[in-house]
């Protein structure tokens, strides 16, 4: 009983889960992958969707601004395409050789006895390949990816998270129904006083949608009030903050609205948030002295 009392008197760690974005968060923007992704998206729009090249810059800007990702926006305004084909085209030609093993980050992650989960808008193949190149593939409990939130083997997203694999389904996406006439979003915003009200909705679930973040947390059984969310995107950070997450803006030295911490590099994690290790050390000391075992849930 004495040991149990000691254990209960120690304040439990503030966080029991670390939720990480992948691209430009676990590796720097200077890797060049994001630049290549944008080029490949634009090539896909021209080669596969028949979009006029002169419209690409304005269209990409409006879709990204209003829908979170260009892919989400393309589906919203009426373009029909196979999700797997899109991801294969956009990610299949990336310079993955620019990603090198990161033993420093690996050591930091493995030194924290806290749940660690990836949450990315990218597809599963890209996420696994990027993590493998970084040497971090075994540092995370699971990956919440495009397929997790968009189970393409079903017509609608299931309300039963037990039916959805944490890593996303392995089935190939089937061809979607014939798309309706494409909505002229450029023309829409060229009209006086027109805004986002009245825009068609997207069938794709992704960040920075608050409902997407909430769904991801539900699927992975993550408590937002005890989770630290790492992101390079300011708007994703702000959405995460609105759903109750504590947030870390990566790639910036100054905090912005919605960010609890700012890290110029993910390598600065220990210096910027030392309490993560302090809490873990205290808990380890109590567990060792009292014989209390703390279980860490694992979702397959």
Structural write-up:
Strands 3-2-1-4-5-6 form a 6-stranded parallel sheet. It is α/β, with parallel strands linked by helices and 300 residues long. Helices cover 40% and strands 8% of the residues. It has helices spanning 2-9, 33-47, 56-67, 70-76, 83-91, 103-110, 124-134, 146-149, 185-190, 210-219, 234-242, 269-272, 275-290; strands spanning 17-20, 115-119, 142-144, 227-231, 246-250, 261-263. The protein has a domain at 2-29 and 101-176 and 186-290: 3-Layer(aba) Sandwich (Rossmann fold), CATH 3.40.50. α1 (2-9) packs antiparallel against α13, α2 packs across α5 and α3 (56-67) packs across α4. It contains 13 helices and 6 strands. It starts with a helix and ends in a 10-residue tail after the last helix.
Helix content: 25-40%
CATH topology of the domain at 2-29 and 101-176 and 186-290: Rossmann fold
**First-to-last CA distance:** 35 Å
Strand order of the largest sheet: 3-2-1-4-5-6
The beta-strand count equals: 6
What structural class do helix, strand and pairing data support? Answer: alpha/beta
The helix/strand series, from N terminus to C terminus, equals HEHHHHHEHEHHHEHEEHH
CATH class categorisation of the domain at 2-29 and 101-176 and 186-290: Alpha Beta
Q: How would a textbook summarize the main sheet?
A: 6 strands, parallel
User: What is the arithmetic mean of pLDDT?
Assistant: 85
Count of alpha and pi helical runs: 13
């Amino acid at each position: 009983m004495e040991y149990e009392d000691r254990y209960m008197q120690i304040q439990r760690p503030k966080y029991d889960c670390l939720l990480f974005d992948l691209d430009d968060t676990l590796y720097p923007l200077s890797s060049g992958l994001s630049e290549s992704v944008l080029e490949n998206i634009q090539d896909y729009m021209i080669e596969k969707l028949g979009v006029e090249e002169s419209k690409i810059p304005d269209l990409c800007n409006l879709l990204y601004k209003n829908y979170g990702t260009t892919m989400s926006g393309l589906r919203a305004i009426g373009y029909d395409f196979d999700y797997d084909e899109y991801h294969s085209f956009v990610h299949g030609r990336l310079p993955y050789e620019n990603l090198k093993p990161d033993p420093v980050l690996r050591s930091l992650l493995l030194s924290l006895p806290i749940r660690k989960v990836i949450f990315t808008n990218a597809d599963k193949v890209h996420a696994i390949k990027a993590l493998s190149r970084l040497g971090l593939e075994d540092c995370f409990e699971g990956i919440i990816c495009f397929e997790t939130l968009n189970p393409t083997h079903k017509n609608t997203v299931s309300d039963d998270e037990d039916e959805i694999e944490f890593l996303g389904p392995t089935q190939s996406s089937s061809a979607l129904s014939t798309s309706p006439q494409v909505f002229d979003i450029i023309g829409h915003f060229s009209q006086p006083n027109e805004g986002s009200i009245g825009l068609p909705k997207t069938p794709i679930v992704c960040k920075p949608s608050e409902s997407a973040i909430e769904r991801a947390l539900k699927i992975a059984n993550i408590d937002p009030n005890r989770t630290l969310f790492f992101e390079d995107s300011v708007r994703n950070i702000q959405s995460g903050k609105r759903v109750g997450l504590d947030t870390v803006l990566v790639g910036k030295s100054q905090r912005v609205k919605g960010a609890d911490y700012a890290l110029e590099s993910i390598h600065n994690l220990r210096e910027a948030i030392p309490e993560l290790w302090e809490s873990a050390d205290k808990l380890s000391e109590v567990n060792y002295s009292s014989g209390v075992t703390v279980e860490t849930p694992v979702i397959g």
